[in-house]
Amino acid sequence: MANDSSGGPGAPDPEVLAGAIEDTREELAETLDAIADKVSPKRVATRTRKKVAEAVRDGANDAVESVQDSAAVAADAVRSGVAQARGAVAGAGAGAAVGFAEPTGSASHPPPPSAAPAPSRLPVLVGAGAAALVLLLMLRRRRR
Predict the structure, then answer these.
(1) Rounded to whole angstroms, how far apart are CA atoms 29 and 16?
(2) 98 confidence band (pLDDT: 50, 70, 90)
(3) Is 119 left (phi over 0), alpha (psi -120 to 50) or beta?
(4) Per residue in 76-88, pLDDT tens?
(5) Which of 45, 48, 49, 74 sits most deeply, having the most CB atoms within 10 A of its CB?
(6) Which of 80, 75, 81, 83 lies closest to 134, judged by CA?
(7) What's the CA angle centered on 95, arms 94 and 99, to 5 degrees?
(8) How wide is the angle at C-alpha 75 spanned by C-alphas 71 and 79, nearest 5°?
(9) Rounded distance, CA 115 to CA 138, Å?
(10) DSSP alpha helices (H): ranges in the chain?
């Protein structure tokens, strides 16, 4: 009887097994290279830097939009206040003296009783409130 190195009937050919083992080694080497590339500190840092830059860009764009919206609201409030002030001045009457109220605590004397009433401080308060709102929104966005 001849010496059969195949290991018996139905056993796979050693050359086929060697080829399959070599293919598996190549696939495993590619997989390990891909894993090493994915966890490489340099690659991780690059990916993280890109993600952070994108997040900062998005946040800056959101902040710009928010400030623009707030500025538009403030501008509308100022326009409204100016219109109210013009209406108050026009409503004071033709030729009538328009008195402006002095800040609280000033040393000036009260206006004489014959003078027209002081215009409303509402426009000034609306403008100041709008400016404060813009500042608060800017600070809020900055903290995020």
Answers:
(1) 20
(2) very low
(3) beta
(4) 888 888 888 887 7
(5) 74
(6) 75
(7) 105
(8) 175
(9) 43
(10) 14-39, 41-91, 122-143
Q: What count of other Cβ atoms lies within 10 Å of the Cβ of residue 143? A: 5
Q: What confidence tier does 95 reach under pLDDT thresholds 50, 70, 90?
A: very low
Residue owning tokens 């891909």: 34
- Quick one: pLDDT at residue 17? 92
Tokens of 64: 């710009």
Residue 53 has pLDDT above 60, yes or no: yes
| Model confidence, pTM | 0.38
Of 45, 66, 49, 68, the residue nearest 143 (C-alpha): 66
| Per-residue CA distances from 21 to 28, 72, 110 (Å) | 10, 71, 104
